Every structure is written in structure tokens, then in C-alpha cells.
Amino acid sequence: MPRTTDGDGTPVPQRLLAAATRLFAEQGYDRTSVQEIVEAAGVTKGALYHYFGSKDDLLHEVYARVLRLQQERLDAFADADAPVEERLRRAAADVVVTTIDNLDDASIFFRSMHHLGPEKLKQVRSERRRYHERFRALVEEGQKKGVFSTATPADLVVDYHFGSVHHLSTWYRPDGPLAPQQVADHLADLLLRALRP
Fold first, then answer.
1. Tell me: the pLDDT tens digits for 29-49?
2. Which H or E run includes 42?
3. C-alpha distances in angstroms, 169 versus 17, 72, 74, 93, 130?
4. CA 21 to CA 135: how far, in whole Å?
5. Alpha-carbon span 8 to 44, nearest angstrom
6. What is the pTM of this model?
7. Are 51 and 110 in contact (CB under 8 A)?
8. Which residues are registered as beta bridge partners of 11?
9. DNA-binding region spans which residues (predicted)?
């Protein structure tokens, strides 16, 4: 049985994911070999296959861990006891910050999603749809209550915001003029302004 941690206590799955994320970001998914990943993580191929089964599984997990985090946070915002405009603004800003915090993961995924097998691709699309539907439900709630304008369909509002989020990896730079929270606040404000009645 493979060791579950290394000398500093880092679990092997985390080491493999960290190595894969770095290599996929630097070289691209298709140009990164399993051997390079296990060497960078300091483990054997047996350990990788014990935890992940394939390079495809690693790619899936790179994105899935971010999506799980974002879904948990969105659910907490959506379920909070606060006005709908406040809940939507928090959710809209949070997806920006968590995407920037995991920029390599997001850029790897959008560049390499087509490498996933059909089942994994279907699963990821389903998970993303669940997230978008929960986000859209906040927009629809505000529209039904008359807090938000109904001039633009909720689906289009959601697509508009997530179009911005999905392109962060193409232009955002950590050493640029705006901190993650500033970008998040600007994009959330744009969304809320677009929804004003």
C-alpha cells in the first residue's frame, strides 16, 4: 500500500494534484506525461494509480475541487438570511475571488476540458450546470420580488457574468493593478447595475 503522506505530512493525493496542476499549467495537459507528474510529486506510478487511476482523473480533480469549493460557498450565500441583492452580490464576487485564487486550475481546465473522457465530461458539465442553476435562482428570486429588472432573461444575466469569470485567466495578473477582491467587487457591481429595475 502506498504511503499516504510524505515527510512533512502532505497527503500523497495533494502532492500529486499540486504537481499535476503546476505541470499542466506550464506545459499543457497533453504534453505532460504521467512519469513527469510522479517524479515531480516524489511518488511512484503505483501511488498515482492507487489514488487517481489515470491522468484523465487528475485533470478532472483539478477542476472538480474548485467547483466543489465554489458550490459550497454559493449554497451558503444562497441560503443566508439576507436580502436577495446582498446574497447575489456576495455570490457574484465570491466566484471571481475563488477563480482568481485558483487561476491555474481554471485556465488548465478551460484549455484542456476536451481531453476528458465522455463520462467525466458529462459529470463536469452536470456539476457546472448545478452551480449555474443555483446562481440563476437568485437572479430569478430577485426578479420575482421586483428587486431586479426582468428586461433581461435570467439565463442571459448568468451567462454574462460567467463569461467574465471564465475569461479571467486570459487577462488577470497577480502583479497587476487590481487585487482579487477589487476585481470581484467591480464585476459584482456591474452585474447588480445591469439588474436594476
1. 999 999 999 999 999 999 999
2. none
3. 19, 22, 21, 16, 22
4. 27
5. 18
6. 0.86
7. no
8. 5
9. 33-52
